[in-house]
Design brief:
Shape: elongated
Number of strands: 67
Distance between the termini: 82 Å
């Protein structure tokens, strides 16, 4: 199957010059250089890392809305086991900005990395350039590719004419190479600072600066880390030129499929409005400002919305009803904009303000008030820095929505859009994140020939009830997927990929289509995986992330081990435990340990975090438990398995097998028991049948203190009471020992099933009474008057005596 048929523009398969070892570990790409290129050129990218032998293809995400040719990979080859070179042809109309990619080798798929495409020719930074006096001269209209090492500063000089727009934009944090927070400044020949920037609402941690050249001459741009840090990983791409660099658009939204005109805000030099053809679908669209000075390196976001727009200025006599949208600008510091909307009691509305999500500098606060002035609520920082809420309206009436900046700032770029409408059904699919500290861990699917790989699909749904079904329009040859519907009450569902033994070593970026909702009005959604690329202190903060819209899947060489999860022959009982039988098969000569993990724990089920099967063993038992609230249902479960190969873990999975969760057989209660230390005790447990069982079960008393023991008892489904004989010793601790319970064990289907019952039992162990001294001898009493002897009482049965003792202790 060709890469193009999978939505990849990746030609050129393997051209190896090295002999590979029999087994290879998963590839790890640590560096991609250069970090970017100019469109309309051919560039060789070098990928460095570990276990990169057997390079097959570069998988380049082109973006779901791309119509341009983008990036074509013409050759992929190893120079050694740690280095891969890829020749890429970048189309003249390739989309500007970020292009995520992955390396596919015969043994796996790498983590996601990125390259960036710009419009300007690329110039390499050359040291020494750490002072203005030693600034590196570059063309006005170029992109500098450089690195900021610790406490470094880079200076660049260029020539400009009076009246020229001087624009500088840097890609630093956005390159995803490390926690590099760049700061830039534009200076004239007299060292006068014309513009400077650290963070920006438009580019977040990256910087952008613009100015107008006051005279002909030499101008400078400086680059440094904002905190004077830096490292060998602090790469950057600095665009210097006369390109436009607006900060915002007006209007902030347009209807999908329509044609409209947008005006650019925050531009150093007047920029003519641009005619825009809106995409037919989607929620937002990037608009690249363009004029005779060039094209902006990154876009401004335009929201796509079908909501009607409230007229401005508002007519006090005609208050609109939802659904409706308002848009405005907090033009002056301290200003508050007010919008009125008529709502009906009981209607469910979604209220969302878009400001920071459109890269506006507005840190919006939204206050909702009734017509009488009473405040319903104040919203701030719900989705990032933007307010948002959804819920039912409590009363009919007119509501006023007041918008202001959190810090009482204002200006022409403080643009926002406010939408009030019933919640729209939406659906989005991604892979379940396995490790928050390693967000890219197992976020691609590598399936070994003749083997399997399981994963969890997660959906984010809005206003959609019922099951979610998944469809896979196109998969690599020899690869199949078992994708189970996601239950209405669950956020995720397991899926299992299986590769035929003769499947070609192929792969690609595949679509996933999710369908939910009513059969006569289905809602469909696609794959959207957000990948954090830069994480740092404090508290594992995500400083930069990107989103891809297809799932990377590949068939790989078979690893030297396989794992089988034996289908359980009996259910897991509520408040019970079970061991899942596992078999590990290894190729001759491979003796590595294999570590096992549950793919997922169904609701109410817990399991061991991991177990390891040593290299000299081929069987293991994986313990799982069920709580009392575990749904009685049959669940598909699987095990993930990994083992170190060539210094890197290779991951595979077992097949999906059915695990049934069932009700326990018995409930019970333990009566208080008491004894003296060193003496026996009898403990009564009453039973109540939940469901019948055949044969005999074993009931064991658990939780006894040290140096106390009892013998398990056999019971049948008809028994309602059982007595445990407890033995204590002189070392048994004194006091009340709480937390006693019973465990029932029963053979079912050739396996032993267990569950617990009769919780919170108590055994009291008292000290024996002290031995008193013998009293002095006394005179014998007079002989009693002879009377008839009373009849002896009927002796109590053992159970009657236990009940009597328990009643007396209760008094």
């Amino acid at each position: 199957m060709s890469g193009r048929s999978l939505g990849i523009v990746a030609a050129g398969l393997l051209a190896l010059s090295l002999t590979r070892s029999l087994w290879a570990g998963s590839p790890e790409v640590r560096s991609i250089l250069p970090t970017g290129a100019q469109r309309g050129t051919t560039v060789t990218f070098t990928l460095s890392g570990e276990r990169l032998s057997g390079a097959q293809a570069l998988l380049v995400y082109q973006g779901s809305g791309d119509t341009a040719e983008g990036i074509t990979v013409s050759r992929v080859a190893n120079t050694d086991e740690r280095t891969v070179v890829a020749d890429c042809v970048i189309a003249p109309d390739c989309r500007l900005g970020e292009h995520p990619l992955r390396l596919r080798t015969a043994s796996g798929i790498s983590d996601l990395g990125t390259i960036w495409v710009g419009a300007l020719p690329v110039v390499a930074e050359v040291e020494p350039n750490g002072e203005l006096s030693s600034a590196q001269r570059v063309p006005f209209g170029s992109t500098v590719s450089g690195v900021i090492t610790r406490e470094d500063a880079d200076w660049f000089a260029f020539e400009a004419k009076a009246g020229d727009r001087l624009s500088a934009e840097i890609e630093g944090m956005r390159l995803g190479r490390g926690n590099f927070d760049p700061a830039i400044a534009i200076l004239d020949a007299r060292r006068f600072e014309l513009a400077e920037c650290d963070d920006s609402p438009l580019l977040r941690q990256d910087a952008v600066a613009s100015a107008i050249a006051p005279r002909d001459g030499t101008y400078y741009v400086s680059v440094r880390d904002a905190a004077y840090g830096g490292s060998d990983a602090s790469h950057y791409r600095l665009h210097i030129g006369s390109f436009p660099r607006p900060r915002m658009l007006w209007p902030p939204a347009i209807a999908p499929g329509s044609t409209g005109e947008v005006r650019f805000i925050g531009e150093a030099k007047e920029l003519a409005p641009m005619s825009v053809v809106a995409a037919a679908s989607g929620r937002r669209q990037g608009i690249f400002a363009t004029d005779a000075g060039g094209v902006a390196p990154s876009p401004n976001d335009l929201l796509l919305s079908t909501l009607p727009l409230a007229p401005e200025p508002a007519d006090p006599a005609a208050v609109p009803s939802a659904p409706i949208a308002f848009q405005g600008v907090i033009a002056e510091p301290g200003a508050t904009n007010r919008h009125r909307v008529r709502c009906k009691a009981g209607e469910v509305l979604h209220v969302a303000l878009y400001a920071r999500r459109l890269r506006s500098p507005l840190d919006a606060v939204l206050e909702v008030a009734r017509e009488d002035g009473s405040i319903v609520g104040t919203l701030d920082d719900v989705v990032g820095a933007d307010p948002e809420i959804q819920g039912p309206v409590d009363k009919d009436g007119i509501y006023e929505l007041r918008v202001r900046d959190h810090r009482h700032r204002g200006g022409e770029a403080f643009v926002y859009r406010l939408e009030i409408a019933p919640p729209m059904p939406s659906l989005r699919v991604s892979l379940e994140r396995v490790d928050n500290r390693r967000p890219q861990f197992l976020q691609a699917i590598a399936v070994p020939r003749g083997g399997r790989m399981a994963a969890m699909l997660r959906t984010e749904r809005t206003s959609i009830a019922g099951e979610i079904a998944f469809d896979w329009p196109l998969l690599p040859a020899g690869l199949s997927v078992r994708s189970l519907p996601q239950a209405a009450d669950l956020p995720n569902a397991p899926l299992l990929f299986t590769a035929a033994a003769d499947a070609p070593l192929d792969g690609g970026l595949v679509d996933v289509i999710a369908t939910g909702g009513a059969s006569d009005a289905p809602v469909r959604g696609g794959f959207a995986q957000t990948m954090p690329l830069v994480i740092g202190p404090p508290n594992e903060t995500v400083y930069y992330e990107t989103t891809v819209e297809r799932l990377a899947v590949a068939v790989t060489e078979a690893p030297p081990f396989r794992v089988t999860l034996v289908p359980p022959a009996s259910p897991l009982l509520r408040i019970g435990a079970k061991n899942l039988a596992v078999r590990v098969e290894r190729d001759a000569g491979f003796t590595g340990d294999v570590t096992l993990h549950m793919l997922w724990n169904p609701p109410g089920v817990t399991s061991a975090n991991a177990i390891t099967v040593p290299g000299n063993q081929s069987e293991a038992l994986y313990p799982i438990n069920a709580g009392g609230d575990a749904p009685v249902r049959t669940w598909p479960v699987a095990l993930l398995a990994h083992s170190p190969v060539q210094g890197g873990d290779v991951w595979i999975s077992s097949d999906l097998v059915d695990l049934a969760v069932a009700e326990p057989f018995e409930q019970g209660a333990i009566q208080l028991a008491a004894t003296e230390r060193g003496k026996p005790a009898s403990l009564l447990c009453t039973l109540q049948s939940v469901r019948p069982f055949e044969g005999k079960a074993t009931l064991t008393l658990m939780g006894l203190p040290a140096h106390a023991s009892s013998t398990p008892r056999e019971i049948t489904s008809a028994d309602r009471e059982v007595v445990f004989d407890i033995t204590t010793k002189d070392e048994t601790p004194l006091g009340q020992h709480r937390g006693l319970f019973c465990e029932l064990s029963l053979p079912v289907g050739g396996e032993i099933v267990t569950h617990r019952l009769a919780f919170d039992g108590v055994l009291r162990v008292d000290a024996p009474p002290a031995i008193a001294a013998a009293p002095p001898a006394a005179a014998p009493p007079p002989p009693p008057t002879a009377e008839p002897a009373p009849a002896p009482p009927r002796p109590l049965s053992r159970l009657e005596q236990l009940r009597k003792d328990a009643a007396e202790r209760g008094r």
